[in-house]
Structure formats: C-alpha cells, structure tokens
Fold these 2 entries.
Entry 1:
Amino acid sequence: MPARSVITQLPPDIKAAFDKMLIECGFSDYDGATKWLNEQLQERGLEITVSRSSAHRYGQGFEEKVAALKIATEQARAITEAVGDGEGMVGNALTALCQEKAFQVLVKMGEINPDDVDFTKLTVAIAKLNKTAVDQKKWQAEAHSKAKETAEEVVREVKKSGLSEQTAEEIRKKILGIV
C-alpha cells in the first residue's frame, strides 16, 4: 500500500486553502502552489516541507475527483431538467450510491488499514444515509397523498361544471402523472 500523501495530513484549513488554490490555478502552477504551501507551513511553525512532485501527485488525484464531481453534477442537472425531480429520484439515486459505497468499505474491511478508516464517521454516515432514505420515502408518500387529494378535489369541481366522467378522469390522471 503506498504511503499517504503528506498533504492529506496537513491542518484542515491549510489543506482546504491549498485545494482552493489548485482549483483556481487550473491545476497548473505547482511551483507557485508548492512555494505558497511551504510558506504557510513555516508560518505555523510546522517542520514539514512539501516537494513539488508530492504536490503534483496529490493535485493529479484531486483534479480527477473534481472532474468526476463536475461530471456527476452536470449529469444530475441534465437528468433533473429532462425528467424533473418531483418524486426525488435524483436524491434516491444519490442516497443509494452513497449507501453502496459505504457497504463496499465495510465489505473490504479485511483489506483496508484500520488506521485509514474513521469507524465513528462511517457509522454516523450510514445512520444518516438510512435516515435520509426513510425521510425521502416519507416525503414521497406525503407528496403522492396530497396530489391524490388534489386530483380528487379537481375531479369533483370539474364534474360540477358539467364535464364528462371521461374528461374528469383524464384530468385526474394528468395531475397524478398517470398518462
């Protein structure tokens, strides 16, 4: 197993600022970014020096993650625009994906260095994911129930105004999304 990057072990505020700098410079000015990072570490009195090659290796992995996140965000936006998200399908898919990733970590526990996994955070994340899934299903049921009530109310009003049973049924189906 390769050694952990020294950058991942930096104080969170310095690492976050370094990450931001890499994004802002388009993952290109590693000389400047490394110089800045080492100055920040010296100002804090930390006896750590980050080499340009270490910063570049870290930056390459980070750039891949940023690119993947951008693609996922663009795809989610496109899907939401194309099909809507009235029933929270994107949220369901995201929750399911996160649950699957957490499950993969648990399955691979024998292969993972225990020092690399914060079990408390992992179990809290799993609990939150499960709560999110339950809340999402509850919200969907409530939204469906309200839509059904509204559809029935509209059908009653439409019938009062003299429209046919067939027309009223078509209106009800459209409100409920049953085409």
Note: Residues 86-179 form one domain.
Entry 2:
Amino acid sequence: MPRFSRLLGAAAILALLGSAGCASNRSAEAYNANELGRTAVVTQGTVVGAREVPVQGNSRGGVGTLAGGIAGGVAGSFIGGDWRSNVLAGLAGALIGGAVGSQIERQATSGTATEFLVREDDGQTISVVQTNEAGLMVGDRVRILRSDRTRLQRDTGVP
C-alpha cells in the first residue's frame, strides 16, 4: 500500500503542475474558439507610445484551485490508519492542495505586457495592453481590431 500511495501522490503532483499550463493565452496573435466567426470593427492608427507593464495573475478560472484540491484530497486520503484519519487527511489535503493550486495558477498567469498608446487616424488616442509578439514599436502603423477585446496588429497595407 505505501508504494501505491507514493505513486498516487506523484500523479497528483503532476496533475497539479500540469494545471499551470492551462493558463489563458493573453497573446494578441491567438484567438479563442468562441471568437471564431465574430465580427470586429477595424481602424488604423500609429503607435505613439509604448511601455512594459506588469500583469498580475489571477485564479479566477479556478482550474488550479480545483486541480490542486482534487490532487491534495486524493493524496491526503491515503494518510492515516483508519477511515476517519483518511477522511480528515483527505479534507486537509484538499484544502492545502486547493490553496497551492490557486497560487500556481496565479503565478502562471502573471508576467509582463506592453501598454501601447495609439493615435487613430481620426485623431483619437487610445491605450491597448497586450503582449508584443509582433515587436511593435513607436512609429509603427497598426490595425486596431475591436470585438470582445481590442487587439493591435501590424498594418501591412493589405486590406
């Protein structure tokens, strides 16, 4: 039985760590499945300012908390001698695992992004915070896509 509980504990830890990879993609280049087929209003502008900004992670999705709670509960349920000890250890494991999973999710969704100031062709200036995989810089022409979220893309001149 001790070997089985060690294997189960290792599997629970792997499941918890794997949940960190489920963090939402904040990329300006990636689209979620629910965004397919939706229209966006497109305008153009010029980047007039850019600065790095910290992004505080969150655990709103609850994936980390849920995965950690399950993993901790399962692992904890093998601690103790009788069924009462197993239940209490399982509950404690679920609480601790949930807290650890939440923290892992928060760290996995933290990082940095870029705040862009864009002067639209109509003269209005807007701010958009996103990651900068495209390497946008001050002076670059951009397309501004507005739908459920606002994105900036390099304006290639092709409609």
Note: The mean pLDDT is 77.
